[in-house]
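In this section we turn from sequence analysis to structure. A common task in structural bioinformatics is to predict how a protein folds when a small molecule is present, because the ligand can shape the pocket around it. The inputs are simple: the amino acid sequence and a SMILES string for the ligand, here pyridoxal-5'-phosphate. Study the lines below before reading on.
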Amino acid sequence: MLKLDSHPSGRHFLHIPGPSPVPSRVLRAISYQTIDHRGPEFGEFGKAVLSNLKKIFKTDQPVIVYSASGTGSWEGALVNVLNPGDKVLFYETGQFANLWRALATRLGLHPEVVGKPGQDTWRWGVDAAVIEERLRKDTGHEIKAVCVVHNETSTGVTSNIAAVRKAIDDAKHPALLLVDSVSGLGAADFQHDKWGADVTISGSQKGLMLPPGIGFNALSPKAIEASKHNKMPKAYWAWDEIIESNKNGYWPTTPSTNLMYGLHEAMEMMLAEGLDNIFARHQRLAQACRHAVAAWGLENQCLDKDTFSPVLTCIATPEGLDADKLRKHALEKFNLSLGTGLGKIKGKAFRIGHLGDCNELSLMAALSGVEMSFGAMGYKPKASGVVAAQEFLK
Ligand SMILES: *Cc1c(COP(=O)(O)O)cnc(C)c1O
């Protein structure tokens, strides 16, 4: 049972890597009256939302807005550009790459998974050379799409998407590049056009500071062209009617009116802060968090400093320190939510989200909650991570 009517003093510290905290300005915008989604006011509003979205994705091309979570938007991308039985290449960076691949299998596609041989790919970013090598061998161009996760939320790794584009181009391969930036967008720099993504998939509840419920596909001309001829069955997800309707600021079906109010507000806030300032703020909080992890004597799940995520930090726990027990204690004692270890690292890692509407002191609260929970777990940190983060942030 949700105890929504109980009132613990102070506030809940939501430090999972999505959903992220929703700013009160956004919550207030969501509470405006619902209006006629076919009326004149909505058309103008819709156009403003779509225009701002292009700035957030850094694209001149259409951005599709679905009433769906990120998973629905994964499906939207695949069913619009591929054909039944197509071979698609996935790079295994962690649980989200795996879930997306499983969804592709359910749709009747044939995923092939690659990773750098001999490496625990759940601890590193995408190695574009592995993709290039595989594509060079595909002389018959059977692989129709390369699917990569920009910010792997299960491990705290941000991969170099421009390098993946270059690998595809260097291999002179026609595969489309499909990128999941569900947790990257709005928190880590993402450049849809410049980096040459054909479809970028995203969602509302991570860097965009909204509740869950809307998802996105940013498109390229090549992806739009593919969607005109592909044979995967598609109806709700089909881009054509949405693109047509969007020209006047409308949607063919009822959009999530109130979440869209929130989206508009959140994007106004983001553009006012400046995307580069937002990315720098995320980098700084992530660095502070890593100082804490190092002081505690714990290991970052990500082993490659070039791909440390600015969005979240995934901390690998040693034998004898059960990550889920630690999380349970932090929640019950300090009203702090930490992210669980996902997939094969369940119980062996926990995640601290420092994305979206976070600042120095919200991060410090999360670090304190973790540090205070160590004692109850019988874990003695090497030194204080709180002090280390303070030294860095002051
Ligand atoms: C959260 C997330 C998703 C899934 O989104 P849902 O909204 O839960 O469907 C997909 N990919 C990544 C990288 C994510 O972080």
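The longest helix spans residues 275-296. As an exercise, try to locate the residues that line the pyridoxal-5'-phosphate site and compare them with your own expectations.
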